[in-house]
Amino acid sequence: MRRVLLALLLAAMATSFAPARRERLTVAPGALRVGLVFDIGGRGDKSFNDAAYAGLTRSQRELGIDAQYLEPASSEDRESALRLFAAQGLDLVVGVGFIFSSDVNAVARDYPTVRFACVDYAPMGRAIPQNVVGIGFKEEEGSFLVGAVAGLLSKTHKVGFVGGMQMPLIERFETGYKSGVASICASCDVLSAYAGASPEAFKDPAKGKAIALSQIGKGVDIIYHASGATGRGVFEGAREGKALAIGVDSDQHDEMPGVVVTSMVKRVDVALFELVRRLKAGQFESGMRLFGVRDGAIDFVREGPHASDLPRDVVGKVETLRKELVSGERKVDVTR
Q: Is the model's pTM score more than 0.90?
């Protein structure tokens, strides 16, 4: 009877994902089975989700895992997607984005033999389940580096920051950015604004463009965003206002060549690959795992054609700061 009920449940859940994309990258008998559920915006966002997908495909290619992914049709489907993978008994189920934190906790408690991971996991003051690993990043370090870039490039001594949803995670980007600007240009002003107070703020290009144009109207000549798909509007506003922009999470140069001079790279792919590699080696450890500049998981685009708009002296000065972060000589204060 329990098997019949489980089969009916899985069928119902699978039907609920009809509008979403579901794919199995490879089928390898006996291989480690990993399922990934994308965040709002899904695959193709040229940012956070695409970086996670790169880590999944690299794990499939180099570690021979059986990799699957789901793109929920709406934010309400997050928990159902996690449960769909968990009910299949996958070795690891990954939720991409802080919004998954509570959903991962709930599903992990119902499936104690399945391992879970959450990218940008927020503990929320509760104990992390024994079968959950939270992946976190030192975003303030990368934001510090591009803040230094902004301080060096600004001619008006006014630079901008556009966040998506106002919350502690995104505020770390802002704080790190301001610290980086101040380390190079003590006379520079940083104008900050957020697109909203809900997850929808990460997919509102129109709001992003409006904020960018407003900041440019106040003298800002370079803007850094940490706003997901809203950043596309920031780039459009920068182009229209003849300002420069700094991308986030992935190398976003191709989104607006000639406008995006560099990007703060948050290597979700590196962190995810490392997690899968350790799991395959029998080294899964629950709790929080933080990745930063020293781990090669946080950086800024400083080489190659996508960094061609950065003067070499600017790269050299910021590279010195990066090495200080790697050595531990310099720390970035995230208190506001």
A: no
